[in-house]
């Protein structure tokens, strides 16, 4: 008989670093200077050398309810023990239906049809394909073009990377989706140390009219943007910008997709960025906080209109030739249900909203620290931009990351921007601790 496998999750004994080719990582540096996390609870990680690390990044913007939530673990264990896997192609099981219904309750009115994926990248590609399928089903077959935004991030699959606007992610990959164009990003050079939304009247979004004039509305299927760009280093939109994008897309029959992989699930103090801004897109993409990151899962929430056009408008048979083996996986769906229950019972989205003023005050108090050239914030997110060191862009923020780690604080550095996005359970004292540690580090930094 086979013995059950046993892993000592927290032990590094016998761990060989050679074989795991790490994603988005300086592998050579890491393997010479490994930083291993071995346990997590509440607001803290534990590292393999016994350090306790205050998690100011919710892992990777994903552990919104804090680490080690027992109710999620219990739901996962029950699902694994009851129904390890069941297909959702031409079959089903109750959990993804239940989760879709729960999700629909917290989405903007009218967005209540849910397609499950396994990640944010898959959600982005699913949403783009859904937009193409929508127009196709309506007989609008010339609408093939997809509009993204510079410095946008929609994951790393070919669709998302094509509409994305981070140069390093795109340049080396020649084969991209055809017919893509990009809006300008929303970071105004003149606007520094702005609290919350950038000033504006929506005029920046009028660029979309220029792209429409250039390409013809009849060739454009969808516009995809993050309500607040996270991965590019926290770019907060100007007032009125998303509203204006909505007006223009509606006027021209173009679908509007909000990539809410980061902004979903309370990050901005509401269930979605759409809710916060009062702008309802046609499609919302989700992942990360959906399961509190316990099990990989993403979702694409479509309006009834988009869904019905495809499902009712297609000939008898499979309506949307798309899906993943693990779409609606029982274990992930169980984690999602338990996670949504925690968000609801603990009122975490509203809590994040209530903490946002304290957060804003605290992060902007770093404005007079050496090297700081800009600070941006929205909800429980902040971007602290440092002046790059001559000749070595990114080196300064990387050094802050390393020194913060050594002092028991986990932050994220993208380029020379420090990005902060703590779990929504953060206390006022923990906010002060994050800011205090950063102030000390920045003061001594070359
Ligand atoms: N979309 C946005 C807005 C993201 O921030 C991310 C990840 O950070 C993704 C998509 C990709 O998600 P994943 O890494 O789960 O594929």
UniProtKB/TrEMBL annotation:
Query: Which organism's genome codes for this protein?
Result: Novosphingobium pituita
Report the protein name in the record.
Answer: Aspartate aminotransferase family protein
Keywords in alphabetical order: Aminotransferase, Pyridoxal phosphate, Transferase
Q: Which domain of life is it from?
A: Bacteria
| PANTHER family, per database record | ADENOSYLMETHIONINE-8-AMINO-7-OXONONANOATE AMINOTRANSFERASE, BETA-ALANINE--PYRUVATE AMINOTRANSFERASE
Cofactor(s) required for function per UniProt:
pyridoxal 5'-phosphate
Q: Does the keyword Transferase apply?
A: yes
Tell me its family: Belongs to the class-III pyridoxal-phosphate-dependent aminotransferase family.
Q: Does the keyword tRNA processing apply?
A: no
One Pfam family cited in the UniProt record for this chain: Aminotran_3
GO molecular function terms listed in the Swiss-Prot or TrEMBL record: transaminase activity
Fetch the InterPro entries from UniProt: Aminotrans_3, Aminotrans_3_PPA_site, PyrdxlP-dep_Trfase, PyrdxlP-dep_Trfase_major, PyrdxlP-dep_Trfase_small
């Amino acid at each position: 008989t086979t013995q059950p496998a046993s892993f000592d999750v927290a032990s590094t004994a016998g761990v060989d670093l050679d074989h795991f080719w790490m994603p988005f990582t300086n592998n050579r540096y890491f393997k010479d200077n490994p930083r291993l996390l071995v346990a997590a609870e509440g607001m803290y990680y534990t590292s393999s050398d016994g350090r306790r690390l205050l998690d100011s990044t919710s892992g990777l913007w994903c552990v919104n309810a804090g680490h080690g939530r027992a109710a999620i673990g219990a739901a996962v264990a029950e699902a694994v023990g009851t129904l390890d896997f069941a297909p959702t192609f031409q079959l089903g099981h109750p959990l993804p239906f239940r989760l879709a219904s729960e999700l629909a309750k917290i989405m903007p009115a009218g967005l209540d049809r849910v397609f499950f994926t396994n990640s944010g990248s898959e959600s982005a590609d699913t949403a783009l394909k859904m937009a193409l399928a929508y127009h196709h089903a309506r007989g609008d077959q010339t609408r093939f073009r997809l509009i993204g935004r510079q410095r946008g991030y929609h994951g790393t699959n070919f669709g998302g990377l094509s509409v994305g606007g981070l140069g390093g992610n795109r340049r080396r990959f020649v084969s991209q989706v055809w017919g893509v164009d990009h809006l300008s990003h929303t970071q105004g050079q003149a606007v520094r140390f702005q609290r919350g939304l950038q000033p504006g009247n929506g005029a920046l979004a009028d660029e979309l009219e220029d792209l429409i004039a250039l390409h013809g509305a009849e060739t454009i299927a969808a516009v995809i943007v993050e309500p607040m760009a996270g991965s590019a280093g926290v770019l907060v939109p100007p007032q009125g910008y998303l509203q204006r994008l909505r007006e223009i897309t509606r006027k021209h029959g173009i679908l509007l997709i909000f990539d809410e992989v980061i902004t979903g699930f309370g990050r901005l103090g509401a269930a979605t960025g759409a809710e916060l801004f009062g702008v309802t897109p046609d499609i919302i993409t989700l992942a990360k906080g959906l399961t509190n990151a316990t099990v990989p899962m993403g979702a694409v929430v479509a309006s009834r209109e988009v869904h019905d056009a495809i499902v009712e408008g297609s000939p008898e048979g499979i309506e949307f030739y798309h899906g993943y083996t693990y779409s609606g996986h029982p274990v992930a769906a169980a984690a999602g249900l338990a996670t949504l229950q925690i968000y609801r019972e603990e009122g975490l989205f509203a809590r994040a909203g209530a903490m946002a003023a304290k957060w804003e005050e605290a992060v902007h108090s770093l404005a007079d620290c050496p090297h700081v050239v800009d600070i941006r914030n929205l909800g429980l997110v902040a971007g602290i931009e440092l002046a790059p060191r001559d000749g070595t862009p990114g080196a300064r923020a990387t050094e802050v990351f390393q020194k913060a780690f050594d002092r028991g604080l986990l932050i994220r550095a993208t380029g020379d921007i420090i990005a902060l996005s703590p779990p929504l359970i953060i206390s006022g004292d923990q906010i002060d601790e994050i800011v205090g540690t950063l102030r000390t580090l920045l003061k001594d930094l070359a």
